[in-house]
Amino acid sequence: MSEGPRFTLDGREIPLVPGQTVIEAADAAGIYIPRLCHKPGLEPFGSCRVCTVKANGRSVAACTYPASPGMIVESDTEEVNAHRKLLLEMLFVEGNHFCMSCEKSGNCELQALGYRFAIAAPQLEFQFPVRDVDASHPDILIDHNRCILCSRCVRASRDLDKKEVFGFVGRGPHKRIAVSSGTRLRDTDADVTDQALDVCPVGALLRKRVGFAVPVGQRLYDKVPIGGAPVVPEAPVAEEGRA
Amino acid sequence: MSTSLENAIVEVCASVGNEPSRLMDVAREIQARFGCVSAEAIDGIHTHLGVSRPTARSLVSFYSFLSEKPKGRVVIRLCDDPVDRLFGHDRVLKAFSDELGIPVGGTTTDGAFSLERTACIGMSDHAPAALVNETPVTDLSTDKAREIVAELRAHMSPDRLVKKLGDGNNGHPLVRSMVENHIRKAGPIVLTEHHHGEATRKAAAMSPTEVIRSVKAARLRGRGGAGFPTGIKWEMARAAPGPRKFLVCNADEGEPGTFKDRVLLTEFPDRVFAGMTIAGYAIGAREGILYLRAEYAYLRRFLEDVLAQRRAEGLLGKSIAARHSFDFDIRIQMGAGAYVCGEESALLNSCEGLRGDPRNRPPFPAQKGYLGCPTIVNNVETLACVARILDAGPATFSEYGTKQSAGSKLLSISGDVGMAGVYEVPFGVTLRDVLTMADSRETQAVQIGGPSGRMVGPSEFDRTICYDDLATGGAMAVFGPDRNPIEIARLYMEFFEDESCGFCTPCRVGNGLLRRGLDKVLAGRGEPSDLVQFEEVARTMKATSRCGLGQTSFNPVLTTLASFRPLFDSLVKEDPKKFRRSFDLEASTREAARIRTGGAR
Lengths: 243, 601
Description:
Oligomer: heterodimer
Largest sheet of chain A: 5 strands, mixed
Number of domains of chain B: 4
Largest sheet of chain B: 6 strands, mixed
CATH class of the largest domain in chain B: Alpha Beta
Largest interface: A-B, 43 and 42 residues
CATH superfamily of the largest domain in chain B: NADH-ubiquinone oxidoreductase 51kDa subunit
Low-confidence stretches of chain A: 231-236, 239-243
Structural class of chain B: alpha/beta
Mean pLDDT of chain B: 96
Radius of gyration of chain A: 18 Å
CATH architecture of the largest domain in chain B: 3-Layer(aba) Sandwich
Number of strands of chain B: 14
CATH class of the largest domain in chain A: Alpha Beta
Strand order of the largest sheet of chain B: 5-11-10-14-12-13
Helix content of chain A: 10-25%
Mean pLDDT of chain A: 93
Order of helices and strands of chain A: EEHEEEHHEEHEEE
Shape of chain B: globular
Shape of chain A: globular
CATH architecture of the largest domain in chain A: 2-Layer Sandwich
CATH topology of the largest domain in chain A: Alpha-Beta Plaits
Number of helices of chain B: 24
CATH topology of the largest domain in chain B: Rossmann fold
Structural class of chain A: alpha+beta
Strand content of chain B: 5-15%
């Protein structure tokens, strides 16, 4: 083991580099903390709260909370995982996630986390919101039904593509992604080569005409669950259907 | 873009030094002049202020008092606070709606009027109340609503609706409001005479460290409800490195049923500004901001005038109280209608011209706040206490109240009481004594507002108002025997659902889940498992929400459940066949039926 500052994550001592967040240190040590809005390479955001851990007894988001020497972090515990599962359920019922007809199925992080946490069907009631689809752009589709407001596209467009095609409008339950033109995606400078299109964890932001290219059985999460070994050993096998 | 719009944008941007962080002021002014911040205006702001379109659009869509679509020249905003809702809000709303011929949220075809509902405007002692543009109209009835519309049709001047001026400074020429202070009980700490300028001069004769020591000796804790020791907070900002620091006064009281800061700002603004000046001196800040909620815009000109007087008297500006290098000035930042901005980091975002989303912590505002500089945000009442501590000495202050909760607390009491209004009570007073003071008979429940806001029933009336027992920001809504506590809890959840910023999952989704759950129970379609689910959702909200709003907003549900369990139990039952009782076959198949028959949505 190398010298230097360390902290404890689920009983394991892991090294940290000053300035790292808990999730960055965990990733570097090869320990998976479930997450949705966080993506390495994008500025930490902290909105989905799926990466919630207990640091010295206090609940914090691992993606924004700085790792500090000697801290004790609990992540893979029954209590923390119960919160994560309920947060995932909230995201499922808040939108319209019809996995069986979604081209992101098998490659979708929300769906994959649903399997990891053994969500057969949410206990919460579905809200079935009425949301729009913006298919105006010749090469890109926005399906608001599937958007989980993680802001990955907002950050990628702003920081990687230097465009600021996307932003948030509205408040509370009315919050949604909007495009810079205020109306249609086709009236913005969004382009099919934008990196913003590579970061959507769900099927909300898609390139057109490339769906279902990978056959079932070979998709990202068909063989190995998201984050490696699942939390729940008896997680159901990845059948198609509504998560 | 029309020339007049473009010229106005250029002029308004120039008036804030073309500073992008002043987007809020620009958007408010354009909204006031043109009735909206249109897509065109957003383009203009992008060009002339250098703010990106998504940032500008995000701001406009976030705040209730801004809109991209045109509003009427006169906007009537009826307060839909829970107390107002129980005191005839619906009838008054219907009267306005019928008289104007528009639904809620609508605008008359001639562009003259818009009718809206809005979150608590700080007038629960005057329920039902409304804002007509910036003018509060109070104690409404259906008749008054009809008269107001008739009068406005004749002159379109909201200020002419004020016939009888309220007491005290409500009658000041720069206020001219019908609002009454309703000061029912004045205590020796806040609502009392003081020597103008004395506190500031005394502070100037001390070193900043001595000022902090005084505030610590007085054992002053934040009056917002969380109760963090003020002196310790100041020390953190004082110790934080940086040449530029800020002191912000949080005048965004928005908890349903609170209005004590309205009264403080009306009658004791000088003391609040003195407190800000002293706090600024203590932490090493030369700049202060009063963040004034949009609902209190009618006090703005008056407050500006008080600031001007203090400048003229050497109590604000350069070399305050003749002390070299004691420089401090205050500007007023207007809000635009968002409860969450009472959360200190959301308030700072709002001051910077952004959505009122709270920030990640750390860093804390005392380290990295407004414009990245060390910043202290204090409550209006806390700062009024600071002035008193410097004026009368820490001992006078800490003699009052209890050991852990020194001094007095202002309470805003409304609802089913004979004497709604503001009460200054010593910490440690029992809820029962407070209710007696307010002339409440047969109280069934009291919603005690604040970060640990809770609904309490008669079995808890001997509990005391203090940080260790019933901690409160000061809002107290009292409900008599005819009210349904579950319906009240539902109104609070509706408020939190609307006022969540929507940033994090648990708060954005959780509040709505709880509100719909209560709807179900009230409709007689609830099951025992729903009550278990309330607790599960609340636990996750508490553990995973990003700020204090989502970490506590479920309290009305959980505390109502704890205090009125038999009522819940009488409304929920299990289906004998284990079907989900909330399932509504007709509603669930409506969409399919529509598609089958080709009908319209």
